[in-house]
Structures are given as structure tokens and as C-alpha cells.
Design goal:
This protein is mostly helical. It has nine helices and two strands. The protein has a domain of 153 residues. The longest helix is centred in the middle third of the chain and has 28 residues. It is a multi-pass membrane protein.
């Protein structure tokens, strides 16, 4: 009897937790950003490092039958589309970045446990600021295109990849001129990647010529401002 009551209480507790989580986070939508494969991860890293060699930046769409609204087009998941944003790479690179900062400080005999917390908190605050600032600018400029939160978090989180590469390079080949030279190239490559990837959020294809004539220039400024902030924060990290 006790085990039965315990299992019922556990089931009720799990139901309450899932209900509260689903209230704030769309779990099915979040799963989309983790639908990746090994080949996708490797190719995405290649695009981030050598973004100038990428020829097509168009996201692939999939037609899905909806009983309520009829056929609708949705973006294919990262596993099937190299240009789709994901959260797997940003999260893994973020965690590795925090750990490598600790390793780097330890080699200098400057490591303290609280450094890991400060590093992760600072990085998360930077991401939050970038995402909120972009959403605010979209609101002020009346960007009617739906800009998914997770897309922005993913594109902002990709900055940890070039920073991570330079941290590893600094550990095995600690020559400042080389490290900063590689960092400069990687930031430029990441900036180009961000410019081409985020473009569809700010300047989507549209037949509304009036919209393009009146707001295109402002949206271009917003796009370059966003890319510039990404480059600056990458160098800061």
C-alpha cells in the first residue's frame, strides 16, 4: 500500500512539474533544436569556421498536413538542413568554454572555484542582453516577421565556437600573435555566418514593395548592428 501511494504521489508530482514547465517552455518546439546528427554537427562546425565557402544559406521547408488549417510549410530540423539553427552546439560549446577558462587559469596558478560561476554568469548575461536587445529593436522597427527566441539564442550561442578554438590553441600554442590572428579570422567568419543566417529573420522574402522601400534600410542597420555586437562580445569573451 505504501509503495502504491508513493508511486501515485510521484506520478502526480511529475505531472505538476511537466505542466508548469510546458507553461513557460514549449517542449516540442525545444526538441526541434536538438534534433541533430553527428554529420550535422561536423558540417555545422565547418560552416562556422569556413563560412565564406558556404554557397547556399536558404533554409529548407517541409509541407505538413494540418487538419485545422490545411497544408502548412515548416522548416526542416537541423538533422535534415545544415542551415537550420540548433541548440546542441551552443550549449556544448558554452559548457566546454567555461571548463576551458578554468583550465587556462589553472595553468597560470590563478584558478579559483568561483571563477567558473562568474564566467558562466557573465556569458549567460551577454546572451540574454543580445537576445532581448534584438527583440526590442524588432518591436521598435515593427518587424512583423516572427523571430523565434530559440533561433536568436542559437545564433548568439554559436560565438562560443570561435572563442573555444582560440582557448584550445592558446593552451597548446601560446603565442599571442598567432592566437589573436586566428581569433580575428574566426570572428570575421562567425560574423559573416551570422549575417547570412539572421538575414531571413530581418529581411524575409516578400512581395510587399512598400515595406521594403520604407523599412529595408532600417532593418539592414539592425542586422549589421546585431552582427557587430556579436563580434565585439566574441572578442570580449
Amino acid at each position: 500500500l505504501g509503495m502504491q501511494l508513493g508511486s501515485q504521489a510521484l506520478a502526480q508530482g511529475q505531472a505538476v512539474v511537466h505542466q508548469n514547465i510546458n507553461r513557460f517552455i514549449n517542449i516540442p518546439k525545444l526538441k526541434y533544436y536538438f534534433n541533430v546528427s553527428n554529420s550535422y554537427v561536423l558540417n555545422k562546425l565547418r560552416v562556422l569556421v569556413f563560412s565564406f565557402r558556404q554557397k547556399s544559406w536558404t533554409r529548407l521547408v517541409l509541407r505538413v498536413d494540418n487538419s485545422a488549417t490545411g497544408p502548412v510549410e515548416v522548416f526542416k530540423p537541423p538533422r535534415e538542413d545544415l542551415n537550420a539553427p540548433d541548440l546542441y552546439i551552443p550549449i556544448m560549446s558554452f559548457v566546454t568554454y567555461v571548463l576551458l577558462v578554468g583550465v587556462t587559469l589553472n595553468t597560470r596558478k590563478e584558478f579559483k572555484p568561483e571563477v567558473l560561476g562568474m564566467t558562466s554568469s557573465t556569458a549567460l548575461l551577454i546572451i540574454a542582453f543580445e537576445v532581448l536587445a534584438f527583440k526590442l529593436c524588432c518591436y521598435l522597427l515593427s518587424v512583423t516577421t516572427d523571430v523565434p527566441w530559440f533561433d536568436l539564442i542559437a545564433y548568439c550561442g554559436y560565438k562560443f565556437v570561435p572563442v573555444l578554438i582560440c582557448l584550445m590553441l592558446n593552451l597548446v600554442f601560446p603565442i599571442p600573435a598567432v592566437v589573436y590572428g586566428v581569433l580575428a579570422y574566426l570572428i570575421v567568419s562567425y560574423s559573416f555566418f551570422t549575417l547570412r543566417s539572421v538575414k531571413y529573420l530581418v529581411l524575409p522574402d516578400t512581395n510587399n514593395s512598400t515595406l521594403i522601400a520604407t523599412q529595408r534600410q532600417q532593418r539592414i542597420y539592425l542586422l549589421f548592428m546585431f552582427v557587430g555586437i556579436q563580434a565585439l562580445t566574441s572578442f570580449f569573451l
